[in-house]
Amino acid sequence: MTLHQTIALGPQFADLADDTDDSILGSSTHQGAITALHDGLDACGHGRGLPWFVGNQIRMIVPRVGRRSASLSPDILVHPTLSNSSRDSIIVAADGPPALVIEIASPSTAVARDLNEATPSAKPAAYAALGIPEYLVFDATGEFPPEHLWARKLGPHGYIPLESEADGRWHSALGISFLPQGFLLRVYDQDGQLVPTGPELRAYNRRLTELMDERAAQLAERDERITALEAELRRLRKE
Question: Which of 105, 123, 163, 192 has the fewest other C-beta atoms within 10 Å?
Answer without folding.
Answer: 163
